[in-house]
User: Fold this.
Amino acid sequence: MERTEIEQLGEFGLIRRLTKDIKHQQLSTLLGVGDDAAVLDAGDRKVVVSTDMLCEGIHFDLAYMPLKHLGYKAVTVNLSDICAMNALPTQITVSIALSSRFSVEAADELYSGIHKACEVYGVDLIGGDTTSSKAGLVISITALGLVDSESVVSRSGAKTNDLLVVSGELGSAYMGLQVLEREKEVFQAAPTAQPDLSDHTGLLERQLKPEARVDVIKEMADLGLKPTSMIDISDGLASEVLHLCTASRCGVKVFEEKLPIEEHTYETARVFNLDPTLCVLSGGEDYELLFTIDQSDYDKVHNHPKLTIIGHMTEDAKELTLITRNGMHTPLTAQGWDGIVTGQQSEQGI
Ligand code: ADP
Ligand code: MG
Assistant:
C-alpha cells in the first residue's frame, strides 16, 4: 500500500482529509469541524465545545515551563477558543497521560495551575481521564461555553469592506519564547550561570501565562458590538487572517503600520536580529482575538484601548495583501517559524 508522509499534507491538510466525509446525524449539531469550536443547539442558547492537546517536547518544554504555568496555560488556550465563538466559557474536562518520570507532587503542581485558571475564569472542572504514557506528559482539555443563540460568531461571516480588528498586542509571547530559549542555551553551556530574565518579565508572562480574552467578549457585548467573523490567534496573525479569508471567501488588506506591537517587544526583536513585523505575523501564541466588524460599528472600536483596526476585507478572495510601512504591497503569507529566522525548525503542530 502507498505510504504518504504526514508532513506532505501538513496539519490542516491532514485534518481536512480525516474529516471531509463527515455528515452530521444530529439536528442539534449546528457547526462541526472547521472553526475554533463546535456549536450545539441547546434551545434559546448554544453550547460551544472545543478541545486542544498539549504534548511535552512539541508544545512545551519543562526545562523552562513550570508545571503550574503549564496547567494554567493548558486551560486558558482552550478558553480562548470558546471566546473566539463570542461565547463565555463555563466548564472544562482535563485528560492527562503521565510517564513514570512524574511524581504525585508534580501532578499536584500541574493541577494547582489548572485550578487557578478555573478560579480566575469562573469555570468548573467537571471530569477527565488519567492514563500512563511512555513519552512524557500529554494534556488534553475540552472546554465548553454558552452563548445566546443570536450572538454566536464563526470564522465565516466576514463581508467585503468589513474592518479587521485585533485585541491587545502581538508578538510578545513569541519574543518571550526566544528569551527562554536563549537562557536555556546559556544554562546548558554553563549550568551554574544564573539566568537574567528581569528585563523581560512582561514577555515571559505572555509566553508562560497567556490569558483568554473573556474581558473583550464581555466588553463587546456591553457595547452592542457583534463581530461578523472571529478567530483567536494561536498560530500567528497571518495564518489566522488567512483562515478568516478562506472561511468567509474574502480577500484582505492588512497595514503593517497599524499592527499593535509594544515597544519592548519591538526592541527585543531587534536585539535578537529578528524582524518585529514577522514576529507579529508568524510568531503565534498571542491568544488575542482577531475579528471583523461592519463599518457602521467603527465608532465602537475606534479609540477603544483594547482594540486596534489593522485592515479591511476586500472582494477579491485572491487578494491577501500586506501593505508595508513604505507603501509596498506584498503577499500576506502564513510563514512557518522558519521564515522568522532561517534555520530554525518549526516548533508547533505537525
Ligand atoms: P484551533 O487552532 O482553533 O484549536 P485547529 O486548527 O486545531 O483549531 O483545528 C481546526 C478544526 O479542525 C477544529 O474545528 C477542530 O475541532 C478540528 N479538528 C482538529 N483535529 C481534528 C481531528 N483529529 N478530528 C476531527 N476534527 C479535528
Ligand atoms: Mg482557535
Summary: The chain has two domains: 6-151, 163-342. The chain has ten helices and 13 strands. The chain has a mean pLDDT of 93.
